[in-house]
């Protein structure tokens, strides 16, 4: 890397503006120099607490020693072959271990790719190959990626879909339950029935895809009753049920897969993000007979299941077991929820605190009215937090939700320090108007 050591964040950001496409968004004008567990230091040497975790990628923290060691050892052996040309054991072992973790009392197989969007795209391909049908039903507020198919599935226009159409045909969106905004489970079920009557008959639907907890959509938790209804509906009509666990998977919610909380076993699961501690890899895991539907050569990719990423993912699985991180996710989540609920009692602008495990968020509104989302307050809160040494992210259909994705390996002291900054920053953002 060629960088003059005296350049600060502002100078580097100016270079970034001149060299990088405008469509690549930027949450903070901060350039990281190094990271350690749940802390980072920027190029000027300033310390920050990381409550973003690379958008749910760092459940095991920055540079976990076990992950770093596994990748170093793999670097000394080989870095790439393309699995379809020369296979390697780590790919097979990772598939075996993830298949064993996936819910459902049936034989399973796996496929590895590079990004979450690729995983979703391939899950749809597999479902279509298995059923011979074209249709896919997703949900409002859902986020599934930035490729053409996954943009079509995504239920949020700005910024993900605006200006990029037309999108693939035979994609439909049902309503996602949201009690705060008056959308019940029955409303969601009724919207599915409406799609079957007015949009596409169920015998032409290949898959229904849902996030057990919506990520970009605002950390809205899918009620178990809805997930159970979807399972029955898919069984009735021969539809493949896909759980998009790209953001929820790898232990964020206190179970390896968030859908386990509902007792539902989907046919296919997509995951990525935290499964390899920061190294790019994604997966589709599911029923063996469905996974085997595409012909040889129909699935794969040059970098798919990269050896370095497979080594990292195996190390992450070991770390979860050795450090009991699923229980830690529950403990972290409880600490976050209790603190933010106390904050909500002090500020009417917090419409709701919600989440599952350590996937926790608070929704902000104007004058205590949930029907008036306050995106500007969320933006100002993130800015104020960064000024005080805390990295936060917003999300939600209206951009008014503050989400917390702190590494599960963060200490209680660091969590409390970060949460104190959240409170201070909210106070400052409200005072600034």
What does this protein look like?
The protein has 433 residues and is α/β, with parallel strands linked by helices. 38% of the residues lie in helices and 18% in strands. The protein has helices spanning 9-19, 53-56, 65-75, 89-101, 116-131, 148-153, 185-198, 224-237, 288-291, 307-322, 325-346, 375-387, 412-432; strands spanning 32-36, 39-42, 47-50, 108-113, 135-139, 171-174, 205-210, 240-244, 268-271, 282-287, 350-356, 359-366, 369-373, 390-391, 393-395, 401-404. A seven-stranded mixed beta sheet has the order 4-10-9-8-7-5-6, with helices on both faces. Strands 11, 12, 13, 15 and 16 form a five-stranded antiparallel beta sheet that branches. It has a four-stranded mixed beta sheet with strand order 1-2-3-14. β2 and β3 form a beta hairpin. α3 packs antiparallel against α10, α4 crosses α10 and α12 (375-387) packs across α13. The two termini are 41 Å apart. 50% of the residues are buried. The mean pLDDT is 96.
Question: How do the helices and strands line up, and which of them pair or pack?
Answer:
Layout: H1 9-19, E1 32-36, E2 39-42, E3 47-50, H2 53-56, H3 65-75, H4 89-101, E4 108-113, H5 116-131, E5 135-139, H6 148-153, E6 171-174, H7 185-198, E7 205-210, H8 224-237, E8 240-244, E9 268-271, E10 282-287, H9 288-291, H10 307-322, H11 325-346, E11 350-356, E12 359-366, E13 369-373, H12 375-387, E14 390-391, E15 393-395, E16 401-404, H13 412-432
Parallel strand pairs: 3-14, 5-6, 5-7, 7-8, 8-9
Antiparallel strand pairs: 1-2, 2-3, 4-10, 9-10, 11-12, 12-13, 12-16, 15-16
Helix pairs in contact: 3-10, 4-10, 11-13, 12-13
């Amino acid at each position: 890397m060629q960088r003059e050591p005296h350049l600060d964040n502002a100078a580097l950001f100016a270079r970034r503006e001149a060299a990088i496409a405008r469509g690549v968004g930027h949450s903070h004008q901060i350039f990281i120099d190094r990271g350690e567990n749940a802390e980072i230091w920027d190029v000027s040497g300033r310390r920050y607490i990381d409550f973003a975790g690379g958008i749910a990628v760092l459940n095991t923290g920055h540079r976990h020693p076990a992950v770093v060691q596994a990748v170093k050892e793999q670097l000394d052996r080989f870095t790439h072959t393309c699995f379809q040309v020369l296979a390697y054991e780590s790919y097979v072992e990772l598939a075996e271990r993830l298949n064993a973790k996936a819910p459902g009392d049936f034989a399973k197989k796996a496929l590895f790719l590079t990004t979450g969007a690729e995983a979703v795209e391939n899950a749809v391909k597999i479902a279509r190959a298995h059923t011979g049908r074209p249709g896919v039903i997703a949900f409002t507020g859902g986020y599934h990626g930035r490729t053409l198919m996954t943009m079509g599935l995504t239920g949020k226009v700005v910024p993900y879909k605006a200006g990029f159409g037309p999108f693939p045909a035979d994609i439909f969106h049902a309503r996602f339950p949201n009690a705060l905004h008056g959308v019940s489970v029955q409303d969601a079920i009724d919207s599915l029935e409406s799609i079957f009557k007015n949009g596409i008959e169920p015998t032409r639907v290949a898959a229904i895809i849902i996030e057990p907890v919506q990520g970009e959509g605002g950390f809205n938790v899918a009620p178990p009753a809805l997930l159970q209804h979807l399972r029955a509906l898919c069984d009735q009509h021969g539809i493949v049920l896909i759980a998009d666990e790209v953001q929820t998977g790898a232990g964020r919610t206190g179970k390896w897969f968030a859908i386990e909380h509902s007792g539902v076993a989907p046919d296919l699961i997509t995951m990525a993000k935290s499964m390899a501690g920061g190294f790019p890899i994604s997966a589709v895991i599911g029923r063996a007979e469905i996974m085997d539907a595409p012909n040889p050569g129909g699935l794969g990719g040059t970098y798919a299941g990269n050896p370095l990423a497979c080594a990292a993912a195996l190390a992450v699985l070991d770390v979860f077991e050795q450090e009991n991180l699923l229980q830690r996710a529950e403990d972290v989540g409880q600490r976050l929820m209790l603190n933010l609920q106390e904050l909500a009692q002090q500020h009417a602008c917090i419409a709701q605190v919600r989440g599952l495990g350590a996937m926790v968020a608070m929704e902000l509104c104007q004058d205590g009215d949930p029907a008036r989302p306050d995106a500007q307050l969320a933006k100002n809160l993130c800015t104020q937090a960064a000024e005080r040494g805390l990295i936060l992210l917003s999300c939600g259909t209206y951009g008014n939700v503050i989400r917390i994705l702190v590494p599960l390996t963060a200490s209680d002291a660091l969590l409390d320090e970060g949460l104190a900054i959240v409170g201070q920053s909210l106070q400052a953002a409200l005072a600034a108007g």
